[in-house]
Amino acid sequence: MAESSGHDHSGTVERIVGRAKEFLGDLLGRLDLHNEGQLQRALGDAIDHAGRAREQARRERQAAEAAARKERLEAEKTRLQAEAEDQAALEDAERSRRQEEAEVSAAAAAAKAEVTGGARRAEAAADELERRAVEERAAAEATAGSLREEAAREERIAETIEERKQQWS
């Protein structure tokens, strides 16, 4: 039986070698060689499945990270826009105070109330965006974790098949 150099190759080689062993086993009337070929083909399938599962987990983890980054950027953008709006509102209030000195206390109180309310709404919106980003990342990480566990199970299956294959040889 040919030794593989680990699991750094695709399962295609294992399947091809397995099929050849099955054929030779049938040709020579050796059931053990035929069975070894079937195990080697199954190992090839398991290697490919584990590789696909790992790749899927990697892609989902990257997507989750990108989504979380995007949500953080959106929250920061919202916060900065709210700050700019707050700053503009403060400047308007100050101009109004200078222009209408007789109404200074009423105009200042109204502007301050408007700015404070806007900041609270913007902060609440930013908090909500951040909360959603955290939830989405947690869900994506849970999915990625499940896929990693599935990949690990597939690798254990592949190792078991490899051990059995070695037992048959």
Description:
This protein has 169 residues and is an all-alpha fold. It has one domain (11-168). Helices cover 90% and strands 0% of the residues. The chain has 3 helices and no strands. The chain starts with 10 loop residues before the first helix and ends with a helix.
Content of β-strand: under 5%
Separate helix tally? 3
Taking Cα atoms only, what radius of gyration do you get, to the nearest Å? 32 Å
Q: Describe the largest sheet.
A: none
Instruction: Tell me the count of domains.
Output: 1
Provide tags for this entry.
169 residues, 3 helices, rod-shaped
Could you give a short description of this structure?
The protein has helices at 11-28, 31-99, 104-168. It is mainly α and 169 residues long.
Question: Topology of this structure?
Answer:
Blueprint: H1 11-28, H2 31-99, H3 104-168
Helix pairs in contact: 1-2, 2-3
